[in-house]
Every structure is written in structure tokens, then in C-alpha cells.
Amino acid sequence: MLANYLPVLIFLVVATGLAAVLLLLGTGLGRVFTRFPGDREKISPYECGFEAYEDTRMKFDVRYYLVAILFIVFDLEIAFLFPWAVALDRIGVFGLLAMGLFLLILVVGFIYEWKKGALEWD
């Protein structure tokens, strides 16, 4: 019975060994290559090309998260619409009414977010 698990054990040992080798190799090469001239440029701010004006731990505006949630909701809506459209001939009128109710609920939520001003940026 233990012979059945031998390939799994070999796989885990090889994977752990490979992970350890790659981590050590990356750490060693990182130390070697950061000693070249220009090290200050490598660790300087690079995201926007200039120094940050404020603290990096500032809070994000809540509207950012609301827009992100709206994007996810409507992205999932599309993910539900494709299988529904493919199977529409098999699910019939009940499926049409169910999807209509689903879309109605999403539209009501979208109108609510629109009226609350979640989509407006100053």
C-alpha cells in the first residue's frame, strides 16, 4: 500500500528541493547584481517617475472600491449571460423570466449606485 504513495513522496521531495535551490539562487544572484554602480537608481521610486508627495500609507477613496465592486458584479453578469444564451432553447420561458429578473435586480443596483454618486469623480 505504501508503494502507491512513493511517486507522490518523490514528487514532494523534488518540488521542495527545487524550491529551495531557486530561492537560494535568487537570493545569491540578487546580492551579486545589486552591488553594481547605479544601485541607487534601482531602488528609487519607479512607479510614477517622481517622488511621492504624501505618505504611502494614505487611505484610498471609498469610491475606488465601489467602482471595483461594480466592475466585478457586471463582469460576473456577463459570465452568467453566456451559458444562459447557449441553453436558452432548452430552458424555455422560465429561463427567460429568471434571467429577466436577474437583470432587473442588477439594473436596480446600478441605478442605486449611480444615484449615490459612486461613479462620479471630482
Key terms:
122 residues, Methane Monooxygenase Hydroxylase, Chain G, domain 1, 4 helices
Structure description:
- This protein is an all-alpha fold and 122 residues long.
- It folds into 2 domains: 1-56, no CATH class; 59-122, Up-down Bundle (Methane Monooxygenase Hydroxylase, Chain G, domain 1).
- The chain contains 4 helices and no strands.
- It has helices at residues 6-33, 39-42, 62-86, 88-116.
- α3 (62-86) packs antiparallel against α4.
- It is flat and about 60 Å long.
- The protein starts with 5 loop residues before the first helix and ends in a 6-residue tail after the last helix.
Topology as a string of helices (H) and strands (E): HHHH
CATH architecture classification of the largest domain: Up-down Bundle
CATH T-level fold name of the largest domain: Methane Monooxygenase Hydroxylase, Chain G, domain 1
The percent range for strand residues is: under 5%
Specify the helix fraction band: over 70%
Q: Give the mean pLDDT.
A: 80
Major beta-sheet overview: none
Structural category: mainly alpha
Shape: flat
Backbone CA Rg: 27 Å
Estimate nothing, just give the exact number of structural domains.
2
